[in-house]
Amino acid sequence: MLSKDEIKYPIKYATMPIINQSDWIHELLKQNEIVTYIVSKCYVVSETKKYSANGNITKIYEVVFPYSNDYSKIWNHDKIIPIFTDNSEKCTNSILVGQLFDSFEEVVQVVNQKNKEIISKIIMQIPYSEKFKEISKRINTEFNENLKANKNLETEIEKETRNMIITQENCINSENPISQIESPTKDSSNDANIENEESIGRQKILKV
Questions:
Q1: Angle at 167 between CA 162 and CA 170, to 5 degrees
Q2: Position 58 in a domain
């Protein structure tokens, strides 16, 4: 069996979801829901193409992140590698993603947008009242504090995976030996600071 440093799966960046395993933000996020996204390198296990009737092609990638995305094990330093069933047909610890990236900078923009969408969804679940603005401000603060903690995790993972070299795109699904390119280590420390106005609550009422 290959050691963790010898496995040759293609390596890319992807948006890594952090999964909530506890009641957080006054039960507005349930257990097993995504609380934030961070940037992380990953092992690419497989790629699937889906064709639509209008000729569009959608790619789905099966990936394994090298460190746990379970919120309750967030500081687990044991490196994870793809694990397959006995017949080697199914990876048991992978997740599906729709995009892969070659650089930290590329995926940061997508991660920030996804985090904005999460907090917006949370705010939309708050019943509108006279205290809506006060409650939304408090929840937004809590969210950004949680996001900051996860950004620290992101920075640590990037340091721990500095020896995982990004695989060139045209070498995935190729019979040729995998070629790799260096990727810089960056820190996406800027939080997703989101101003949620009282109008969001009014919009919610209009939709009901």
A1: 165
A2: yes
Output the six-digit token pair for 202. Answer: 């009014």
Per the model's pLDDT, the better-predicted residue between 20 and 53 turns out to be: 53
Integer-rounded Cα Rg, in Å, for the chain is: 19
Of the candidates 93, 162, 121, the one whose C-alpha atom is nearest the C-alpha of residue 25 is 121
Asked, for residue 3, whether it belongs to a domain, the answer is no
Assess if residue 179 is contained within a domain. Answer: yes
Strands 57-64 and 34-51: antiparallel
pLDDT in tens, 115-144: 999 999 888 888 888 888 888 898 899 889
Name the residue range of residue 61's domain.
11-207
Q: How many domains does the chain have?
A: 1
Q: In the numeric block, which tokens belong to residue 113? A: 């947008």
Other CB atoms within 10 A of residue 200 CB:
16
